[in-house]
Amino acid sequence: MVDIVVAAVLAVACSFVFLVWNVAYAGPSNALTPLLPGVQGLVNGPWFIAGPLVALVIRKPGAALFGELVAAVISALVGNQWGPTVIISGLVQGLGAELLFAVFAYRVWTWWTALLAGALAGVGASVYDLGLIPGLAGSYAGSSPAFEGVYLVSQAISGAVLAGLLAWLVVRALAATGALARFPVGRARTAR
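RE: above sequence
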């Protein structure tokens, strides 16, 4: 029960990050777009952070998906410019991060797995945004192959740094305060 409550609290906190970024991303995105179409994906990483963050704390199957999905549902309920489609985005982002932790059988919780989880969350977002899921037209469905390649790589980089690495740093900082003492990450920190 504690895991679910903490996961939900972290997801709610991430949803506030989403709400702020829903407004703040426009400036950086608009500045990057003329440089190279598709490179605006570099600023999307904050929307991918819930999955890696929750997974790094809870360390159980389904945590990344739960975190990203709960944060996306809250974002949709509060309201945003994309409406309920953010729930689909949350689903594919959470699945991307979840896939990485599953590959390592939920046993490896290092900075580099956090980086890769964030990158795969970005890849999941790209698959949806580019309309590569049959029956779902994303924001950039029908784009040129060059745009798609740049966008996918940009979102993977953004996810790695702004979601994966940032989540890992936040979890380390929380563990250092003792706030996560009930969780494996907190116990490992105390043991050191």
